Amino acid sequence: MKEQDFIPAHCDAVIEKGKVTYRSPSNIALVKYWGKKEHQIPANPSVSFTLDSCATTTSISYARLDSKGDDYSFELLFEGKPKEDFKPKIKIFLSRIEKYLPFIKQYHFIIETSNSFPHSSGIASSASGMSALALCVMHIEKQLRPEMTTTFFNQKASFLARLGSGSACRSVEGSLVQWGKHDTKGSSDLFGIKYPYKVHSIFQNYHDTILLVDKGQKQVSSTVGHDLMHNHPFAEQRFAQAHQNLTELKSVFERGDLEVFIKIVESEALTLHAMMMTSMPYFILMKPNTLEIINKIWAFREQSKTHLCFTLDAGANVHVLYPESEKVEVHEFIQNELVRYCENGQYISDRTGSGAKRI
Ligand code: DP6
Fold first, then answer.
1. pLDDT digits (tens, 9 = 90+) for 269-279
2. pTM of the model
3. What pLDDT sits at residue 66?
4. How far does residue 127's CA lie from ligand 1's centre (Å)?
5. Atom of ligand 1 at shortest distance to CA of 27?
6. Whole-Å CA distances, 129 to 146, 225, 258, 347
7. Element spanning 160, H or E
8. Cβ(350) to ligand 1 under 6 A?
């Protein structure tokens, strides 16, 4: 698929009004996307687990205008209340997707959105939020072009979500999604694909307990962080490493090799933060408690012979990943030894999920 394939040749049908709702989950990258070209074209391929509980639910009520407006016509409600400060982001998103959805100035939209996780949890809502929004607008296009296949629908929803936020393109389907051109069959820089090879049953229902170490606003946004990969002294090696890790994961996923899985996932997390610490300007998003938790995880893994591991996003929170078969032991460890490092003892129990759903 090429970018042009997402520009509709026609949108003949006329729909006066309607309403659609999607619930779209967040995702956690195993191989990280960090560095991009224009329009969220990734500098390297990435792969993520789609989550289940952490999600955004978005409804769009749409009503056809008498004539096509000069500007986008929409209202925005966040958790039931008008939210003016979210509007510029939505406007930018609409301007990026208009080329692919030429009907959007023909409608007035009421967008209502809410998150399953607390707003001030330090969990980014851009992946779940942008994918939910992309799915809702795709539903409208589907009304206008009913012949569209499900494969195309999902690909284009992911393509549009990417234009809002890169990692959002990995939130449409589940439970393992790859995004970015690589040897992997069917992979593309334009949208995420369901991982096309065999995945061992150990990765089914994989757990992700998100330890909320710091619920504050990030000092450096992901967008700024991605930019700092331009002219970064280690950029080329890092991008090559992501390719290599993705190649190695193929047999890890197939055989259920948790030893190698842990090495790759933890190395990816630390490399992401190493890139931040070695960019110019440099910055640190981990907090002292992030490191306390990492050390505790290493000690517990050694002593218990379980297979939990950690990963990090662009923030201080720690995602603890472990198989379903070890959940009892790991829960007990988290309760007894890790919760004390969380802000107000807060954490979120999540697991892999099957992707966005229309509700
Ligand atoms: C560290 O998708 O938030 O979570 O494309 O600028 O919106 P933009 O960035 P974003 O970057 C996510 C970076 C990451 C790693 C990952 O999810 O792969």
1. 999 999 999 99
2. 0.97
3. 92
4. 8
5. 17
6. 25, 20, 31, 21
7. helix 150-164
8. no
Using pLDDT thresholds of 50, 70 and 90, give the confidence band for residue 300.
Answer: very high
The pLDDT value given to residue 30: 98
Q: Is 60 helix (H, G, I), strand (E, B) or coil?
A: strand
CA-nearest of 14, 16, 11, 45 to 29 is: 45
φ, ψ of residue 26 in degrees (nearest 5)? -85, 175
Mutate to test the pocket of ligand 1, among 24, 226, 264 (most ligand atoms within 8 A of CB): 226
Q: Which residues on adjacent β-strands are paired with residue 170?
A: none
Residues 83-100, mean pLDDT to the nearest whole number: 95
Cα gap 177→340, rounded to integer Å? 33
- Token readout for 213 is 């170490």
Cis-peptide into 349, omega within 30 deg: no
Q: 236, exposed or middle or buried, with CB in 10 Å at 0-12, 13-18, 19+? A: exposed
96 closest CA partner among 181, 165, 191: 165
- The type of residue at 302 is E
**Each residue's pLDDT tens digit, 44-54:** 999 999 999 99
DSSP structure string for 117-143 = S-GGGS---HHHHHHHHHHHHHHHHHH
| Residue 73: burial class (beta carbons within 10 Å; 0-12, 13-18, 19+) | middle
Is the CB of 313 within 6 Å of ligand 1?
Answer: yes
Ligand 1 centroid to Cα of residue 33, in Å, is: 6
Residue 297: which H helix or E strand, with range? helix 288-304
Task: Look over the chain and give the mean of its residue pLDDT values, rounded to a whole number.
Answer: 96
Residue type, 268: E
- Cα–Cα distance measured from residue 264 to residue 190, given in angstroms and rounded to the nearest whole number: 25
Does ligand 1 have an atom closer than 6 angstroms to the CB of 261? no
Of 38, 169, 222, the one to substitute when testing ligand 1's pocket (max ligand atoms within 8 A of C-beta) is 222
pLDDT above 90 (res 216):
no
Cα-Cα-Cα-Cα torsion 227, 318, 278, 240, nearest 10 degrees, comes to -70
**Cβ 353 vs Cβ 175: under 8 Å:** yes
Amino acid at 110: I
Q: Whose CA is nearest to atom 7 of ligand 1?
A: 165
